[in-house]
Request: fold
Amino acid sequence: MITIELPIPHECQRRVMDELDRFNVLACGRRWGKDTLIDILILPALLDQQNVAVLVPRDIDRDKMIERAKIILGPLLDEKVVQYDRKVSAFKHGEGEIRYYTVKNHASIRGSALDWAVLNEAGELSLMMRLGKAWEEVIRSALLDRRGRALICGTPRGITDFYTLYRRGVEGVQNWRAWNYSTYDNPHLDPAEIQAMIEQERMSKLAIEQEIYAKFIQAEGFVFSELDKVCVLEERKPIGVQNTCVFGVDVGGVEDYTAVSVMSVRSLPVRELALKRWRTPQIRITEGRLIEMVKEWRPAAVMIEANAIGRYFYEELRYRLTALGIVVRDFYTTSQAKADLIQDMRHAMETSRLQLTADEVGIAELAAYGMRRTATGKPSFNAPKGMHDDTVMARALAYRLASSYSPQSSDVVFRASSVALDKAMPTRAGSVYKVEEEQWKPNLQYARSLPR
Reply:
């Protein structure tokens, strides 16, 4: 007989297992042990030849869960009792299987007959897709044939569809059950270590309440939503797009990434063609890679965050791009200019004027991007502490440029409010980089859409 060793559940995990209903919602702090609980529930279900679907936000989340399962199922995989099908990300045993899905292909769950549906990292799922709609239209119906069960679990990320489902369990809706546990409820973690992390990382009150205590908080919070409706495009190759695309460039330093978003200027909605990202401590390498991208794509114009790197390197980069015949527009980041830039892109996403590529890093940065109010009441936009926003800024810059272009005869001519542009992207009189003003024609409709 071949045996496998499942993790031993701690007290709170055991309580959830003992109290399981048909539809179960678990809100828990970071490192509470939800992934372990999922393994304990679904791996025996596979051996009982049940059908299980696991939905996670990204490929990297799926891969981590699969690797955990492979370790536990190792002896059975070695003896071919359980098979792993890499093409469909599924473990199979007899008539049963565990199949893993991400936001990108979650609609494929439709038509399945499931014994278990697991929605892991439900807080992030709620930011990346319309989780409530997916539950009602795709997942719930897959549980009909076999009277299947569901576990929806994760750390809260504001008041989202995850919270709506959680409330069903709290309010005692028939067949629904909900639990809330903090990071401190994991007995394998030293409380002193958790407290040290909070102090060393200088976690905000909001972050502590949400990430540690798993509280659903109506924060001023997250900026972008329903990303599954926006991030739907496949990356294009630089063929047949010369002079019909623009670049948005967020140049990174030693610690940060450089990101480049390529967007079409001849489509409505505006479409992102590609999103590139890299990190290097040498600005010369970054400069060289950017020049190579420009030669490949031949964009009509490039918008660069001018005050992101040292003045010398920026001027040199600007000179080299101009020498290639590329129109270069500066963006000088201030709190207000950044707020206007981000709000423009958010509005475009919400009104179906912008479609983006389904790049995982790009989706993750959009999902995590937040807004808070300063002491004076003004909005401040940033990535959470320890995360990056380079792709967000690159996309916002590219959209600012792309949405202001329109084709005129065979040429692409920039059209924008000169007032708005002068605030965000001043040109210097007498500079060798100065763009001739006849290239810039006013578009009153676009000017009205910009914040005053």
Observations:
- The chain is about 40% helix and 20% strand.
- The chain has two domains: 11-212, 227-449.
- The longest helix spans residues 335-350.
